[in-house]
């Protein structure tokens, strides 16, 4: 795979980028309507238009998870209900069958009992209102890096990646990795 | 006899013991886990027992990002430790020295005080932070060293939940100088899980196994560009390739490195800076069992195993360059420089000369060497850079606490239960100057 390949691919990438500009807003509309398992932060990320940055944030969040599986919620794309009107969905369900606790009701009950996350506690503590000379959790964070630019590693094989996927923004290093990326990972926003 | 309980309540491990002793009595994971097969949550040391099968166990931790979020769960874990691991008959006769994360939130401090005084009825409480304890311990180890003569050090605590660079002066952490990098062992393990799950076997649920893989196989690269080139090679030329065998639940209940020799080969690469470490005894036994060298070379699909190459150094690399992960944070070297710059200029030369590394994530081979290489260009020429590693970075904080608890005026520094009941949490906390 010589430089020839790389050049060809580069221009192709640019071309497609321009062509896709018009409908980058809804590549997600064409997904199946079956219930999929997505991490809670991912739900917000998928719903938003600026999903690349959102997905990047959600992914960093996921690095702090204890369990990969347990923190999943089910989203049903047939239903219009987002996470916020879970309460309504719960009410509706309950009016239908009052005898038995549904799975959703149980989940809701657990959510109420569950401890709040640390970020919620930070928001509650209202640290921004402290005078500027008082050190706090938020001010102790080391700021953005000064000079070093980001290095990119191929999401498939881990070596230096020169190309970006035009659809989802993930990195890959060669056409072989691109094929794998397209088959398995494109638009799934995992890494 | 001292009756001070010293408790380093870390995000990953709880270190608990009696003040004045050298070793903590209990070092157990600060979490509860439930194996797939059972409904009972296992606490702390039960997770380590050989009979429990932790494959795909789900975990709950009382701490999130290093801070206590679930006091109920923490109470269960502590009471398990106090009743079955420590010889603690009656907490109302003992004092507690508790290590808290830096810049704790007032709401969390309140819930900790409730836990200590109302649930456990401790007689008195002293809250310490990890940098000052590490400083204390290092200063006491070499009474004529720079750290104890100047009473100044810069403690870099790279633990499970986050990494802090904290200047310490006269035994107090200068909290205005503290800089935090939101990356620690937990994020690194999760990152490794992600990489391995995508590239070979799905291990997203195997926290304990991947922790083991990270501890045994990951190392810090001194030259990432060059090492990436080496990692590309095939066969024997690839010095980083090694294979980890997952437990099968029948013959092996723990995962192991297929060929420990192979895993150590990267050490020979360098300009002879380090001699190859001794193989573990366990590893030697495995080697004899496996025997034939030719079947070590390829991945055997009938066994559950996976190969690692560039993952071994890309994972710890993130501490030095969090930007590569998409985090908008400076790397560890810059973190240290910013912590130093927040202090008085007179302290700068001393701080750079007394950097102490502590915390479990500094155990990656060559961590200190790489840090020095990154730090040197950022520090003014006329200052010396000296990085000290602790002999046991995981227990360093606890030992400092044990030392402090055995000092004669410890009792006077504590907040007693009576004072707590009289004044409440917030006013008692002012005594600790955090």
Task: Give a verbal description of the structure.
The complex is a heterodimer of chains A (191) and B (434). Chain A is mainly α. Helices cover 43% and strands 5% of the residues of chain A. Chain A has 8 helices and 4 strands; from the N terminus they run αβααβααααββα. In chain A, α2 packs antiparallel against α3 (51-62). The two termini of chain A are 26 Å apart. By secondary structure, chain B is an alpha+beta fold. Chain B has 3 domains: 3-130 and 395-432, ATPase, nucleotide binding domain (Nucleotidyltransferase, domain 5); 133-184 and 327-389, ATPase, nucleotide binding domain (Nucleotidyltransferase, domain 5, 2-Layer Sandwich), CATH 3.30.420.40; 185-318, ATPase, substrate binding domain, subdomain 4 (Actin, Chain A, domain 4), CATH 3.90.640. Chain B contains 18 helices and 20 strands. Chain B has helices at residues 71-85, 106-119, 130-141, 146-150, 185-199, 207-217, 224-232, 260-263, 266-269, 281-290, 311-320, 332-341, 348-353, 367-375, 396-405, 410-413, 417-423, 425-429, and strands at 4-9, 13-18, 26-29, 32-34, 42-43, 58-60, 63-64, 67-68, 95-100, 124-129, 152-158, 163-169, 172-173, 179-181, 242-245, 256-257, 305-308, 355-358, 387-389, 415-416. In chain B, the strands form 5 sheets. Chain B has a 6-stranded mixed sheet, sandwiched between helices. In chain B, strands 11, 12, 13, 14, 18 and 19 form a 6-stranded mixed sheet that branches. A 3-stranded antiparallel sheet of chain B has the order 5-4-6, covered by helices on one side. In chain B, α5 packs across α6 and α5 packs antiparallel against α11 (311-320). The model of chain B is unreliable at 271-297 (pLDDT under 50). Chain B: Keywords: Nucleus. Chain B: It is found in: Nucleus. Chain B: One of its GO terms (biological process) is actin filament-based process.
**What is the top-level CATH class of one domain in chain A?**
Alpha Beta
Question: What general form of chain B does the structure show?
Answer: globular
Q: Name the beta content range of chain B.
A: 15-25%
Instruction: Just name the CATH architecture of the largest domain in chain B.
Output: 2-Layer Sandwich
How is the quaternary structure best described?
heterodimer
Which two protein chains have the largest interface (Cβ within 8 Å of the partner's Cβ), and how many residues from each? A-B, 49 and 63 residues
CATH topology of one domain in chain A: Wheat Germ Agglutinin (Isolectin 2), domain 1
Percent strand of chain A equals 5-15%
CATH topology call of the largest domain in chain B: Nucleotidyltransferase, domain 5
What's the CATH C level of the largest domain in chain B? Alpha Beta
Distance linking N and C termini of chain B: 29 Å
Secondary-structure content class of chain A:
mainly alpha
Low-pLDDT parts of chain B are 271-297
What's the number of helices of chain A? Answer: 8
**Rg of Cα set of chain B:** 23 Å
Protein name (chain B): Actin-related protein 6
InterPro entries (chain B): Actin, ATPase_NBD
Family (chain B): Belongs to the actin family. ARP6 subfamily.
Keywords (chain B): Nucleus
């Amino acid at each position: 795979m010589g430089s020839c390949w790389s050049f060809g691919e580069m221009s192709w990438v640019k071309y497609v980028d321009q062509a896709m500009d018009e409908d980058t807003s809804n590549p997600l509309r064409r997904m199946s309507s079956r219930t999929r398992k997505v991490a809670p932060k991912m739900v917000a990320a998928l719903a938003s238009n600026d999903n690349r940055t959102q997905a990047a944030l959600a992914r960093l969040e996921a690095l702090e998870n204890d369990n990969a599986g347990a923190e999943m919620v089910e989203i049903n794309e047939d239903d219009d209900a987002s996470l916020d009107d879970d309460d309504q969905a719960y009410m509706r369900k309950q009016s239908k069958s009052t005898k038995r606790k549904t799975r959703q009701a149980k989940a809701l009950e657990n959510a109420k009992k569950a401890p709040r996350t640390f970020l919620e506690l930070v928001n509650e503590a209202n640290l921004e209102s402290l005078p500027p000379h008082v050190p706090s959790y938020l001010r102790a964070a080391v700021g953005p890096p000064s000079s070093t630019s980001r290095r990119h590693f191929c999401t498939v094989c881990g070596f230096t990646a020169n190309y970006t996927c035009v659809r989802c923004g993930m990195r890959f290093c060669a056409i072989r990795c691109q094929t794998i990326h397209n088959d398995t990972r494109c638009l799934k926003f995992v890494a | 006899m001292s009756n001070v309980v010293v408790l380093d309540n870390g995000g990953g491990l709880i270190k608990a013991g009696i003040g004045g002793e050298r070793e903590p009595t209990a070092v157990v994971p600060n979490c509860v886990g439930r194996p797939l097969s059972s409904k009972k949550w296992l606490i702390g040391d039960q997770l380590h027992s050989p009979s429990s099968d932790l494959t795909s166990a789900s975990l709950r931790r009382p701490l999130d990002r290093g801070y206590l979020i679930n006091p109920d769960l923490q109470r269960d874990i502590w009471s398990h430790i106090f009743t079955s691991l420590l010889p603690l008959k009656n907490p109302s006769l003992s004092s507690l020295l508790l290590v808290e994360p830096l810049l704790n939130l007032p709401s969390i401090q309140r819930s900790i005080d409730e836990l200590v005084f109302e649930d456990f009825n401790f007689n008195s409480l002293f809250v310490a932070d990890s940098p000052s304890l590490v400083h204390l311990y290092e200063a006491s180890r070499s009474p004529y060293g720079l750290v104890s003569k100047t009473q100044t050090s810069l403690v870099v605590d790279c633990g499970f939940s986050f990494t802090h660079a904290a200047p310490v002066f006269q035994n107090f952490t200068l909290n205005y100088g503290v800089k935090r990098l939101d990356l620690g062992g937990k994020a690194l393990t999760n990152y490794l899980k992600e990489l391995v799950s995508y590239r070979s076997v799905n291990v997203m649920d195997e926290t304990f196994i991947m922790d083991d893989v990270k501890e045994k196989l990951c190392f810090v690269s001194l030259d990432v560009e060059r090492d990436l080139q080496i990692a590309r090679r095939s066969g024997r030329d690839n010095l980083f390739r090694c294979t980890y065998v997952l437990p099968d639940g029948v013959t092996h209940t723990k995962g192991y490195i297929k060929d420990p020799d192979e895993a150590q080969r990267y050490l020979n690469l360098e300009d002879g800076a380090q001699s190859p470490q001794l193989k573990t005894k366990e590893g030697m036994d495995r080697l004899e069992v496996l025997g034939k060298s030719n079947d070590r070379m390829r991945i055997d699909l009938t066994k559950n195993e996976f190969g690692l190459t560039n993952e071994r150094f890309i994972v710890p690399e993130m501490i030095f360059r969090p930007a590569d992960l998409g985090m908008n944070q400076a790397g560890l070297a810059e973190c240290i420089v910013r912590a130093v710059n927040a202090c008085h200029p007179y302290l700068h030369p001393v701080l750079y000369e007394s950097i102490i590394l502590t915390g479990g994530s500094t155990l990656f081979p060559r961590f200190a060497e790489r840090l020095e290489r990154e730090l040197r260009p950022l520090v003014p020429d006329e200052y010396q850079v000296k990085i000290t590693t602790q002999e046991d970075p995981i227990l360093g904080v606890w030992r400092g606490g044990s030392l402090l608890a055995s000092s004669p005026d410890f009792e006077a520094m504590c907040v007693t239960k009576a004072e707590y009941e009289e004044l409440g949490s917030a006013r008692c906390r002012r005594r600790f100057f955090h």
